[in-house]
Amino acid sequence: MQPPAAGDDARTRAPLLTAAPTEPGGTRSAAQSAYAISTRGLVKNYPGPDGTTVHAVRGLDLDVRQGETYAFLGPNGAGKSTTVSLLCAIARPTAGQATVAGADVVARPDRVRRSVGMLFQHSALDPDLTAEQNLYIHARLYGLRRRHARARVTETLETVGLADRRRAPVRTLSGGMRRRLELARGLLHEPRVLFLDEPTTGLDPHARAQVWEHLRVLRDLHGSTLFVTTHYLEEAENCDRLGIIDHGRLVAQGTPLALKSEIGDDLVVLRTGDDETARQVVGRTVPPGLVVTRDTEGVSVRVPDGSAWIPRLCAALEAHGIAVRAASATPPTLDDVFFHHTGRSIHTPQPHRTPAAPAPGATTQATEEAS
To answer: Model-level pTM?
Structure first.
């Protein structure tokens, strides 16, 4: 990402959560003032093998509110990182429109870059410099004057809980500490929108929980808008809203609770001494139309209020002389939601994209890989 010119003083920029800047001509759309991110018909194509066209982002319509934590949930290759590159004005869209922090990503890319922070998938820290030195250099590249840069380094290190490691070389920090230091770097210039591309990839569960705790503090203290890409279901649960992206298309979005509520029914699993006969008995016991399956886990069926159904199903099986060894009722998960909308688990490898005809009016540009 290209930093602002070194002569610009960050103290002259608009603070967090101010109104979106007015575009040339003195007009500002409702989407620009109401949303931190807004896209309409956003498309990104690039040349694939054998002269074909790969469609990384296909007609994306998206609105993310100010101060919201929004997640893109999808497997590798779904188009998450490509979308972030477009929204950060790193890549140029093939077609469509997008505004970030009130600025158009094509007409005003410099303004977009000044207004956003970015946490990349892979570390960009210098391992031989200290935590403090890494942040100070980044602050200067973003145009902060020396005194203000030092103050921001101190503030952000305290925010992410690394003040006591400020003089430690980065190579001596744990993986979780390095990720928190990268988060601090993304906050130095007080961005209005912070993009986090797979922010906890490679971290153990404890370090992942620490990163998310600091993200919650950041949002509560500054009202920052956080845009997260992830394939971890537990991370998506931490967000206000999430969008499920598949093959470059937004196939569903809403709060985690609302999306799971669409699935509705609990999954009841029964392990018995005779699962095939049990499947037939359960099929006759539950309401008509419900699908009862048998696999290595046992006999499964989705029913409303699964915990209330377990005693009834156990009684029916025992009446037929079938011993029940274990029974469980599980509410819908985000993986169930993903399966419902895409036909596969999020953990299933993404199949190779089949090239399709370009979107109307779209042109092909080779600037980056879809991811």
So the answer is: 0.73
